[in-house]
Write a structure and sequence with these properties.
The chain is an alpha/beta fold. Helix content is 25%, strand content 26%. The chain is globular. The chain binds alpha-L-arabinofuranose (AHR).
């Protein structure tokens, strides 16, 4: 049997994984909002039209913050179309996803959802065709208690107390040709700086995220990041990274390449860390800019073509089914975020409901938790805290991204419990030995395993629990990691 060995030493830490790493994303796209979180005719709908079964699942997942309302959608969105009396609001075109936007859910409705789930928003402003002043007006509408136009408008619309939204995004994927109002790095860097300046003049407590490259595959990467940072470093608090992984060239025979996605993700994050440090030094700045990986996931592109459902409201877009292999890759991505906890302070799983989602809903019907629901939920519960360097011996395999380790590790302690995430990417069992050093008492307690004998099996409405976590007592000796399994190994520490 294959063997692996892991050493975790209490003295060798990376940083602190904050809860913000376990955030998610809701966009006006496909059936994420309409027919997802919002379905007034559903039997579980609350007084605002939000599905309580979805709200319960979001709470169970342990989502920290929710980025909203896009994504590509935000670059064509006028937030003023979505406020005021619902009967006075007019539908508009959602040009990002070729849908009709009924404007039934706008900022006030989303904030009701946010307050009910307990997940504060990361609110994105339109820097595609939107103006710096419109972004500043949105901050005034949401956060001020002044006797001025937009703050008064919020009160008139029924919300007396300011929402106090702290986290904001300066647009979305502005380097992408697919983006409404895409820009050159120079144009965007200047627009973002001026917008951030106005937004912070309105509310000095807010924190803003600059758009980095929308993926490491972009020809403009990583120059884009350097240029936009050089133009806006002093005004921003985070730079964003977006990354989705699937089979390269959609070729499902390239399993090894897909399994090695985390190698590329790790490199992408490291290069952005280096770029931030370079600009900090070049601009002689005293402040830090952190990373917000505000879109990441496994994405098998093209599963739901747009052409057959142009201009619908709750029409499907990019609804992926996630199997056990996807859950394993997903877990290595979440572990990679944790292993960069010194720089990554926010990360948003894209998305939350129906679109590339852990949670799937039926119209007027049931809710399904996909395979990726569980690693997110357990990671959110167990992987926030002090992150340790992991030193390991495991097999390796070749991939398009270079050599990858067969067993992926992350190790995090909350002071009382040390959790080791071990993802077996091999097609066979691996016997794992863990050495914990300098913990002054460290006893293995239990193992939570996510595994399916068929790596291609998915949860379905007919078989909703084909993949779910199982908690097991620890073995006396080596820990058996099943093929493509995700394991959270808990130790009690002193
Ligand atoms: O999450 C789906 C889309 O992917 C987002 O709208 C966009 O930002 C990214 O390209």
């Amino acid at each position: 049997m294959k063997k692996a060995k892991l050493i975790v030493n209490k003295n060798y830490t990376i940083g602190t994984a904050e809860k913000g790493i376990f955030s998610a994303f809701v966009e006006h796209m496909g059936r994420c909002v309409y027919g997802g979180i919002y379905e007034p005719s559903h039997k579980t709908a609350d007084e605002n039209g939000f599905r309580n079964d979805v709200i319960d699942a979001v709470s169970e997942m342990g989502v920290d913050k929710i980025r909203y309302p896009g994504g590509n959608f935000v670059s064509g969105y006028d937030w003023e179309d979505g406020i005021g009396r619902k009967q006075d609001r007019k539908p508009s075109l959602n040009l990002a996803w070729f849908q009709t936007e009924p404007n039934e859910v706008g900022v006030d409705e989303f904030m009701a959802f946010s307050e009910k789930t307990g997940c504060p928003p990361v609110m994105a402003v339109n820097l595609g065709v939107g103006s710096p002043m419109s972004a500043a007006h949105l901050v005034e509408y949401c956060n001020l208690d002044t006797p001025t136009k937009y703050a008064m408008l919020r009160k008139k619309n029924g919300r007396e107390k300011p929402y106090g939204i702290r986290y904001w995004c300066l647009g979305n994927e502005m380097d992408g040709s697919w983006q409404i109002g895409s820009k050159s790095a120079e144009e965007y860097g200047d627009a973002a700086r001026e917008t951030a300046k106005l937004m912070k003049w309105v509310d000095r407590n807010i924190l803003v995220t600059l758009c980095g490259s929308s993926g490491s595959e972009m020809p403009s990467y990583p120059e884009w990041d350097r240029i936009v940072l050089e133009r806006a470093y002093e005004q921003v608090d985070f730079i964003s990274l977006h990354k989705y992984y699937g089979y390269p060239e959609l070729d499902k025979t390239r399993r090894a390449d897909f399994l090695a996605s985390y190698v590329d993700f790790d490199k992408f994050i490291s290069v952005t860390e280096a770029t931030v440090n370079y600009v900090k030094c070049k601009t002689r700045s005293k402040k830090d800019v952190y990373l917000s990986v505000d879109e990441w996931n496994v994405w098998h592109k093209g599963e739901t073509p747009i052409e057959t459902s142009m201009w619908g409201v709750d029409v499907p877009r990019e609804e992926n089914s996630y199997n056990m292999l996807d859950a394993a890759v997903f877990s290595t991505l979440i572990g990679t975020l944790v292993n960069h906890a010194n720089s990554v302070k926010i990360a948003c799983l894209a998305q939350l409901v129906n679109v590339l989602a852990p949670i799937v809903t039926e119209k007027d019907g049931r809710l399904l938790k996909q395979s990726i629901f569980y690693p997110f939920k357990i990671a959110s519960e167990k992987l926030a805290g002090t992150v340790y360097n992991t030193v390991s011996e495991t097999g390796e395999f070749d991939s398009v991204y270079g050599k990858a380790r067969e067993v992926f590790f992350a190790a995090v302690s909350n002071g009382k419990r040390l959790t080791v995430l071990a993802v077996n990417l091999a097609d066979e069992d691996v016997a794992l030995t863990v050495e914990t050093e300098r913990f002054n008492g460290c006893t293995i307690k239990e193992i939570t395993e996510i595994y399916a004998s068929d790596p291609l099996c998915c949860n379905t409405f007919e078989s909703p629990e084909a993949i779910k976590p199982v908690t097991k007592n620890p073995p006396a000796g080596e820990i058996q990691l099943k093929p493509y399994s995700v394991n959270f190994i808990d130790y009690e520490t002193k």
